[in-house]
């Protein structure tokens, strides 16, 4: 068995084992998730909440934006509080104040440390003891706790109404006035907040002394502090990472230097590629990419500005018709949509180029898929507006409105529509790639990996269809990270490696056999940490210690391939200077190099900063996670999407003169803008939140008192330079794309060659 076959067997075995473990753990989560009670009652028999209250309350929370109005268990928006942490703190303080008044005749915060410690010792077991009875489905609370629950509920009922007493809080949270108009819906939503908080402090009945969310969030008043296992598995995680880096370094030292040098061809081999009708039809996708990108930046600026004015933008009462939850929803979704569209378009362009085959009606399929994408975006966004503005009833929200789960929050109807669209994309890719898959040449394995990633990207979206409206939140979190994590940190990586390798092989800069072995090996390395590494997102989502141990151990391996990112960047740079005609690909190459840089910074340094259980315990849901998210998503996948788009446009519009100044301005604006946004705002704000969490608890790091400090306002305003520069870059890139259709059109060698080949092969490319 040769090296290529051994690597294929190894990859297949790795994927089978990894996904088997994933499914087994899903079963474990289903069995051990925090129970949802049929009733919550006081000792005197008073019914506080029912299962119907909790379920309907969650629906109400989802309909107004869900994760985009604060967060639950650390997942969601960063502006409003984490409702589970905020409720827990308010309930604990209410109980402490009642006991302080009864025993000392004064509020809790006026007592000395010894008296406070005495009261904390009384209240902590009342909150941490698990009083859920599986036989009756009942949670029983003391009458004093029932009184505290009523007080906290009254506060939230006021916040989500138009009560003048909490108007300042609504402004601080960027909530529009009267966000939940129905009083009964407001009461039910407090039931969901109570249950989410109950799960964070109530200990499992397994003698571990840990709550259902592994003691997250940090709340010193009630003993929610990091567990011994969090420290232990964080230490092992670091050891596994060091070991993985050492093994990968040994592999490169032994094998990388053995690769024979390649003499690049005298002429650009891509000039021999005929741009078929379907490939040319992909052009409109790149127009859509730029439209979505520019809109995303505009909404991002609006969302960031809400941190300053709360309900307004420069005096305009924007929250009345475009509230924060909606601008943030669209901002995050558009980030994924424009990047994904660029990647889908790249696949549709490269598949016929890779195989040299244009299937019948391929152009019609490309055009039809484009129309579907536009309909999905417009329809899904319209449904979310009606939902957040409470103009759509709860009975229709799940199917056509706002599901409330970050990154997977479009209505179920639109999810199904998008899944069908991805299957159509898979069909178009498969029929165009089929001849390349059947050929037994040096490109066969690269074509196979390219198609494998296409299959995975299309089929993995079906994970978003695995939950119902009433599915447990722990299971929803599990399934939605099948998409969020496995797309971004799994098969998008494979897609990217296969595409870039194909480009360099096609240009004659890398041998096909060497590229095949390198791509297969890189895929195994990515998948080793990328699949099971998903579980680091679930540390505090109601899972057991075993899952945390697995997530910490395996997710450390995600950093391993990034340790040698300098070699990848150097190889890319070297290929870009291999021959004079590679100057035609200067800007795609530079974007690929930027991908390597941000992979190291965003995915590597900032990713591992928050990756271990002990780090994430204090950093989840702070701006340190936002720093990782922005630099990894835009810095890696956004830059790569731009680079791939430019490579496709070079072949698609060969007769047009490239306006190098626009591309230079866009490239440096993207990198400088992203760096300034990260260094001036996200990192310092995240560090301040980390300090606040360590000192006072997670509730304070996310509270209005903390977020309204003058230093936070200054840091938010410091986003303006970076955001502005990045926006200028997007505008310049959009102008460049427009210039390829509307700008000067001198006839070049490449355009003449394209026409000659088209005539020779009898398929005029237009």
TrEMBL record:
According to the entry, every stretch annotated as the Nitric oxide reductase subunit B cytochrome c-like domain falls at 37-218
The yes or no answer to whether the keyword Membrane is present is yes
Q: Which residues cross the membrane?
A: 7-26, 231-253, 285-308, 330-352, 364-387, 413-434, 446-467, 479-505, 517-540, 546-567, 587-610, 630-649, 661-683, 724-743
Q: Which Pfam families match?
A: COX1 (PF00115), NorB_cytochrome_c-like (PF22085)
User: What's in the keyword line of the UniProt record?
Assistant: Membrane, Transmembrane, Transmembrane helix
Q: Coiled coil where?
A: none
Q: Tell me which PANTHER family the record gives.
A: CYTOCHROME B SUBUNIT OF NITRIC OXIDE REDUCTASE (PTHR10422:SF38), CYTOCHROME C OXIDASE SUBUNIT 1 (PTHR10422)
Q: What is this protein called?
A: Nitric-oxide reductase large subunit
Write down the species: Novilysobacter erysipheiresistens
